[in-house]
Amino acid sequence: MSAQRNGRARAVTRAGFLPMLARQVRTDLSTAPVALRRRLAAGARAQRAGNIAELRVLGARRVPRTVFDYIDGAAGDELTAERNQTDLRALAVIPRVLTGTVDLDLTTTVLGQRLAIPLLGAPTGLTGLVHHDGEVAVARAVHSAGGLYVLSSAGSRSIDDVAQMSPGPRWFQIYVGPDRGLVQSLLGRARAAGYSALMVTVDVAQAGARERDRRNGFTMPPRVTARSIAQGLRRPRWSAEFISRPRILSQAALLAGASEAAARPLAEMINSQFDPALSWTDIGWLQERWDGPIVLKGILRAADAEQAARLGVAGVVVSNHGGRQLDAAPSSISVLPRVVDAVGGELEVYMDGGVRRGVDIVKALALGARACLSGRALLYGLAAGGPAGAARAVSLLVDELSLAMTLAGAGSVAELDRSWIANAHSDGRTGWSTE
Ligand code: FNR
Prior knowledge:
This protein has about 425 residues and is an alpha/beta fold. The chain has two domains: about 1-40; about 50-210 and about 265-425, Aldolase class I (TIM Barrel). Helix content is about 50%, strand content about 10%. The protein has helices at about 1-40, 40-45, 50-60, 65-70, 80-90, 135-145, 160-165, 180-190, 210-215, 225-235, 235-245, 250-255, 265-275, 280-290, 300-310, 330-345, 360-365, 375-410, and strands spanning about 90-95, 110, 115, 120, 150, 170-175, 200, 220, 265, 295-300, 315-320, 350, 370-375, 420-425. β11 (about 315-320), α16 and β12 form a beta-alpha-beta unit. Residues about 425-430 have low confidence and may be disordered. Bound molecules: ligand FNR.
């Protein structure tokens, strides 16, 4: 009796399943060409990436090795770059429950400017190597989510291009080189184009030892060698775009009269842009020439942050340049609380380095950062899928941030404080411990 019932049930299931399968195959076949085209489009592939790590893998497949290493690489043994991520991961977030929060408030203000999300696009030089839209694409991605973009003086798109093509909140980052006339001209252009604050990068007394770039023979502009041709052939789509719309030299280099023909190792180019003699007195020189707020990027010591506060600097970025400079520096997140304790009441403190997940932003904000900057995460997106990929990177970070806040029981960015954070290391090696 029961065997008979089972047999009937199987027959009914089969009868229902086979037509369903046939229907699905018919639909799949009829939409196959469109779906296939969509699947193969770079932007679409990036759209399907579920997190920043997946965008990184996709990005590595889309751009030549030398370009990927330029983004992904760091100084020396890349210990500091690794620490940025591992120390963020080592922190635990202790959720608060039954808060009844329905509407999340991700807004924050930076230097009086209201932002819908606590995320800034970090200044990155030569972004046009990754995709010809370069800084414009990243700025648009950040702006459309309600964040602020910081344009690098080593950027491959001009101050005016970025301002006109992505007219959202923006600051200008500068490397102060020995040619102060050039510095002044960049400041004038940035002010005229509506960049509201000046970010002065102070951790590049000399270019860090980026060993991947050296091994790859990375020069600016790229030199045509057997190796670069071989790499280019393996990435035909990138190569076709690069050849038709090359974005090679930075605006600072072009203004300084650099020639596109003169290939130089990247480190040499960076060194020509930075004055190793730069000191605190130069901050005064900049303040006299920039009639807006100044932010120092690359602060890791509380005493340096205090000095900045004494000089009337408006903000500091706790940063080790994504591990691309001193490869022994502590992770940004591990020193953030000390800097906040020293100057949090006097100036604004931001943080960058190792942000790959929305929850990383929660951790940094809970430890006192007003906002996070993101460098590589957005560049992986740009490499993976051009402008759509950069937008995907931003939306992944923001969605993850929202989910993490919801699950942590934090209704707003303003609410986050150290009570949310515990150090997951049993030996208390780094980070913050709850009292
Ligand atoms: C950078 N960074 C950087 N910083 C700066 O002040 N001026 C610049 O021109 C550049 N250029 C640059 C290029 C590339 C390819 C990278 C990856 C980084 C450092 C950047 O602003 C930021 O400090 C780090 O990227 C933060 O670390 P994550 O987010 O990349 O881990």
